[in-house]
Write a structure and sequence with these properties.
Length: 124
């Protein structure tokens, strides 16, 4: 259903993004990304690495590094996908927010809420 390809939206070293290999219906589960969670007081160590740009909030007292395709979704303030944190399964579950066509890049809002337009660390 998804694959990693070169993205024109990513300006990082690797320029990767997640793309649909087939049409994906609104509400459809796209990916369940397992997490490696760690206490927020350990983030000072992650902050000294490139992983800091990929860490997600994971509840009130933890952050998480996502595995699988989780860290490769690029950001948009008009996303076609969203995610929910599944604490029981220790995953971030990515869903289609709109219908997504085959070949389209799958984008999430890094703020966590599809309607949140607060500036992010990379455009402040």
């Amino acid at each position: 259903m998804i694959e990693i390809k070169t993205s024109t939206l990513s300006d990082g070293e690797f320029n990767r993004g997640v793309f649909a290999t087939r049409d994906i219906a609104k509400g459809e589960l796209i990916h369940e990304a397992p997490v490696i969670a760690y206490p927020n007081d350990e983030h000072q160590y992650i902050d000294q690495t490139i992983l800091a740009d990929y860490a997600f909030e994971y509840g009130k007292n933890h952050s998480a590094i996502l595995l699988g395709y989780g860290m490769l979704f690029n950001h948009s303030y008009t996303p076609n996908a969203t995610y929910d944190i599944n604490f029981d399964n220790h995953t971030f579950d990515f869903f289609a927010y709109t219908n997504i066509k085959a070949g389209e890049e799958i984008l999430i809002n890094y703020n966590g809420d599809v309607d949140d337009t607060d500036p992010l660390w990379f455009n402040k």
